[in-house]
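Exercise: predict the fold of this chain.
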Amino acid sequence: MAARMDDAGDIAAALRGTALQGHPVGEGLGGTFLVEQVDPVRLLDAWQAAHAAMPATGRWPVFTLPGDLDHEPDAAELADLDRVARTLDPWSVYQRYGREDAQDQGDVERYVRAFLGDDMVAAALEQLTLPTTSTALQRWTYDTLLADPELASRAFRGSEYLVGTARWHTWPEVQLVLLPTTSQWLAPAWVPYFGAARDNGIPALAAAMWQWD
């Protein structure tokens, strides 16, 4: 990895020959650089171009809305976030439901009907000891899907809209931010991701990104 670029002209030169050629590059908050005038319908092309140039720029690319950068982390904050990201269990923070929330028959019926369909409700009630927990119910659902490819395919078709890009909202204006790091898990130090404002949310998000990386 080359040394990090800290000059707008050098960064613009590194982007020549890519989908970002000719886009204005300017300084942003917290040591970032902003690549302006990116077409909101070509976000993937733009991000891939910036990512491919990262060996030259030494900067990880993210997208924000204009004006969304409002924090300038210092070196001590970044070092602390990097340390915590490597040690914190993020999944205890980002848990939609309590792991041991009690689930009665009505809860199980609603959950299974929503995810697997009416015909699987009887099997769930037979195989789970009621009352059960959120963890046990989710585990049973996961194991049931793994054991039945046809059921898994049917369940996926019913929730595909949740994991695809077809329902993404397209903003009329965006900005490509080049962070002064190649460690993607440090991005939450600059960018206020939705949902990360919860207690211990930013360190937990960094920890999840570190694990994925």
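Check your answer against the key: Residues 160 and 166 are 10 Å apart (CA to CA).
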